[in-house]
Amino acid sequence: MTNQEAELKALMIASQRGDAAAYRVLLSKLVPRLRGYYKRRLTGVGRSADEAEDLLQETLLAVHLKRHTYDPEALFTPWLQAIARYKLIDHLRSTKASRMDVPIEDHLELSATDDHAAAEGTHDMTSLLARLPLKTRQAIEAVKLEGKSVAETAERYGMSESNVKVSIHRGLKALASFLRKDSDT
User: Fold this and answer.
1) Res. 124 pLDDT band, cuts 50 70 90
2) At CA 143, angle to CA 141 and CA 8, rounded to 5?
3) Any long-range contacts for 94-98 (C-beta under 8 Å, 24+ apart)?
4) Closest Cα partner for 121 from 185, 25, 43?
5) 18 in helix, strand or coil?
6) Are 141 and 129 in contact, with CB atoms under 8 Å apart?
7) What is the mean pLDDT of the chain?
8) pLDDT in tens, 81-119
9) What domains can be seen in the chain, in order of their start residue?
10) Cβ distance 36 to 115 under 8 Å?
11) Is the pLDDT score of 1 beyond 70?
């Protein structure tokens, strides 16, 4: 086990035990790695760096919501990589991207990745989502958290499909803005 893996694992275990400071440090260490991973994957196939930021926010949200599923006996980086990889695959699938291989071995790349971006703190995602307008929050929860399609979400909430997509995009940008503003205070 590398020093980096041991450090991330220890921070995750401490955060599972309720240590908010350890959780903030963990997320601050994950942000640049995830951002770099997504930027390389997306810009390498002609996709926008903005998509990397959206995926970063989705992945942090997933880590927050699924952290109780992490097994302290297992390595942390493969657990994180599985989340990041599935978020990338879901994103590419939902945006009808051309075929792109996402090898499972990427966990090694993710653990060595850092784009030297500013570290961001942690927040309770439930309270962050509560700060969004109702329709935006519903769209994000349905598509990004529940795995519903854009069409299903549009029908469920009486929105057009394009309105659902715009709501999700704007909502993720707003969440990123909340994280930046809150970490500055």
Assistant:
1) low
2) 70
3) 94/143, 94/149, 94/150, 95/51, 97/45, 97/47, 98/45
4) 25
5) coil
6) yes
7) 79
8) 989 988 888 888 877 654 444 554 554 455 444 443 333
9) 1-121 (no CATH), 123-185 (1.10.10.10)
10) yes
11) no
Give the span between the Cα atoms of 185 and 181, in whole angstroms. 7
Highest mean pLDDT pick, 10-19, 50-59, 165-174 = 10-19
Contact 35, 53 (CB under 8 A): yes
CA 42, 43, 49, 53 torsion-angle sign? positive
Cβ 32 vs Cβ 117: under 8 Å: yes
- 168, 140 in Cβ contact below 8 A? yes
What Cα–Cα distance (Å) separates residue 68 from each residue in 15, 58, 79?
10, 17, 12
Per-residue pLDDT of 128-169, as tens digits, reads 788 889 999 889 888 877 778 889 999 999 999 999 999 988
CB 78 within 8 A of CB 106: no
Cβ-contact 107, 81 below 8 angstroms: yes
